[in-house]
Design goal:
3 helices, about 15% helix, about 190 residues, about 40% strand, single chain, alpha/beta, six-stranded mixed β-sheet, five-stranded mixed β-sheet
């Protein structure tokens, strides 16, 4: 069985069970993930330790050949945490409307993230300025990730599978840094 499901945009999870033929697996994956819907997605092979030797590399090459997105190998929360903590991307400029930054680890933005700009991170997001755009932390489903901003006035925040969208009136920062985290199944804001 080849199971493909969305984890959180833009992440697609692939789990392979009880399959004996690699060509058949590739065919099934190809049939399920064709089209523009999957362009730019991160693909996770959830259970690489359960697959026959050599399959993971073959499947990664196959997915890369489809030119749809980035490939990640994740089988446990520990691997997710290790993967994100080893890499930090520092963006040393503000992000203007329409700009997007994606990274497979933590992201530090030295400036504002303006309205209609987007930051997507597998790990945490720290913004040394105002967050007025979209921030997606824990993009591979990690709900222990956090988003920190000196001024928290977002269009949208996502952490793992949880989404928070302020109401129609724009949120005004209380004047101190805040952290967004998942608590009791909801995204909450707390003073840093």
């Amino acid at each position: 069985m080849v199971e493909i499901r969305g984890v959180t945009l833009p992440v697609v999870s692939i789990r392979i069970k009880n399959e004996k033929d690699l060509a058949s697996v590739k065919r099934k994956i190809g049939e399920k993930i064709k089209g523009k819907l999957f362009e730019g997605s991160y693909f996770i092979i959830e259970n690489p330790e359960d697959l026959p030797e050599g399959w993971v590399r073959e499947l990664e090459d196959f997915l890369k050949g489809l030119n749809l997105g980035n490939i990640k190998r994740i089988s446990s929360e520990t691997k997710r945490t290790q993967e994100r903590s080893e890499r930090l991307l520092v963006v040393d400029r503000p992000l203007r409307s329409g700009q997007k930054v994606e990274h497979g680890g933590d992201v530090l933005v030295l400036g504002d993230v303006n309205k209609d700009a987007e930051v997507v991170a597998v790990g945490n997001i720290i913004i040394m300025g105002a967050l007025r755009g979209i921030a997606i932390a824990g993009a591979l489903g990690d709900e222990s990730a956090v988003i920190v901003a000196l001024r928290m006035e977002p269009q949208q925040i996502r952490i793992g599978k949880k989404v928070a969208i302020p109401d129609e009136t724009e949120r005004v920062s209380p004047g101190y840094p805040e952290v967004a985290r998942v608590e009791d199944g909801m995204i909450v804001l707390e003073r840093v």
